[in-house]
Amino acid sequence: MKLWEHYHTPTTVDEALSLLAQYAGRARIIAGGTDLLVEMRAGEHEPHHALIDITRIAELTTIARDGEQITIGAGVTHTQIVHSALLQQRAACLVESCGVVGGPQVRNVATLGGNVAHALPAGDGTVSLVALGAEAEAVIGGERRWHPIQALYLGPGKSLLNPARDVLLRFRLAACGPREGTAFDRIMRPQGVALPILGCAVRVRLTADGTRFERAQLCIAPLGPTPERLLELEVFLVGKTADEVSLRSVIDLAQSSLHPRASKYRASAEYRREMIGVLLERTLTRAVERARAASVDPR
Ligand SMILES: Cc1cc2nc3c(=O)[nH]c(=O)nc-3n(C[C@H](O)[C@H](O)[C@H](O)COP(=O)(O)OP(=O)(O)OC[C@H]3O[C@@H](n4cnc5c(N)ncnc54)[C@H](O)[C@@H]3O)c2cc1C
Fold it and tell me: Do the beta carbons of residue 248 and residue 217 sit within 8 Å?
C-alpha cells in the first residue's frame, strides 16, 4: 500500500499553508521524516493523501542573530546546529543535545522543528530549548504568533500544532552573555535509539565576582507528560555559592522533590532518581565553568 499519493516541496510558508488548506486535513507536514516515516511504516497513521515537505523553505532553514536574540528555523537540521559557531559560543547546551540525536545520518536530515512538533518530553533538542527559555513561532489555526516553547506540549506525542493544518516556523532564544553558561547531558542505553532514559539541560548566570548563582534555568526530562522548567530548584539556587556545597544541596532537593516515572522500556523510577544527581552534577559543573570562562561579553 502506498503511504502517500503526492509529495510537495513548497518554497514559501504561504505556499505550504495554502497546500495544507487545499488538502483540508488529508495532507501532513514532513521535515526530515525520521519520526514520521517510521510511524507511517509502522501503521500508526492513516495513509496521507499528500506530504508537504518544509525543508526547501529558505526562511525555515537558517540560523541567525538579531542583537541578543538567536533565531533558528524549524527546518534547521541537528547537523547544522552542531556546526554553528554562533550556537557553540552562545547556546552550547543546544549544540550538545543536537549532537547526540541518533547517528550522523539521522542528524543530517532530522530537524529541530520535527523534534519539537513530535512532542515527546524527552526529545533531546526539546530539553535544551526549554532550559534556554526559548519561544517558538508558529502558524496555528491561521494565526501567526510566538509561544513559550512549553505551550506547544500537551502530552506525550500531543502537540498544540496540528501538522495537517499548522506550521512551526522558528525558535528564538536569548544568546548567552557575560557570566552565563549552559550545558546538556543525558543517560542513554548503549544500544538505545530514539529517546534517552533521562536528559538534563541547564543555563546559569553568575554574579559579577563569579562566586554565586544570579540566575538558573533547569530542565530534566522525562519527569512528566510534558517538559517543564524546575522552578523550585531554580529559585533555590539563586544567591547560593557556585560550589560543591550548593551542588550537593540542590541534588538532595531534586532527589527528594522530583518524582520520575518508571518506564517499562527505559528505566525504573529509582534508577532515574539516582541519575538526576549524576546529570545535575555534570551539567551544573560544566555550565559554571563556562560561565566563569565567559566573564567578558563574547561579542
Ligand atoms: C534511528 C533514530 C534515532 C533517533 N535518535 C534520537 C535521539 O537520540 N534523540 C531524539 O530526541 N530523537 C531521536 N530520534 C527521533 C527524531 O530523529 C527526532 O525527533 C528528529 O528531530 C525529528 O525531526 P524530523 O525532521 O525527522 O521530523 P519528522 O519526522 O519530519 O516530523 C516529526 C513530526 O513533526 C511534524 N512536523 C515536522 N516539522 C514540522 C513543522 N515545521 N511544522 C509542523 N509540524 C512539523 C511532522 O508532521 C511529524 O508529526 C531518532 C530517530 C531515529 C529514526
Answer: no
Residue 283: inside a domain: yes
Going by alpha carbons, the residue nearest to atom 11 of ligand 1 is 123
Residue 193 — pLDDT band, cuts 50, 70, 90? low
| Residue whose CA is at the smallest distance from ligand 1 atom 18 | 115
Cα–Cα distance for residue pair 256/234, rounded to 1 Å: 15
**Do 83 and 169 fall into the same domain?**
yes
Edge-to-edge strand list for the sheet holding 213-221: 180-187, 198-206, 213-221
Tell which residue, 222, 249, 227, 224, has the closest CA to residue 238: 249
The torsion angles phi and psi of 11, rounded to 5 degrees, stand at -110, 0
Structural contact between residues 95 and 87, judged by C-beta atoms closer than 8 angstroms = yes
Q: Is 117 in the pocket of ligand 1 (CB under 6 A)?
A: yes
- The response to whether residue 40 sits with its C-beta less than 6 Å from ligand 1 reads no
Ligand 1 atom having least distance to the Cα of 75: 41
- Specify whether 143 is located in the same domain as 231: no
Quick one: cell of 15? 505556499
pLDDT digits (tens, 9 = 90+) for 213-253: 999 999 999 999 999 999 999 999 999 999 999 999 999 99
Distance (angstroms) between ligand 1 centre and the Cα of 112 equals 8
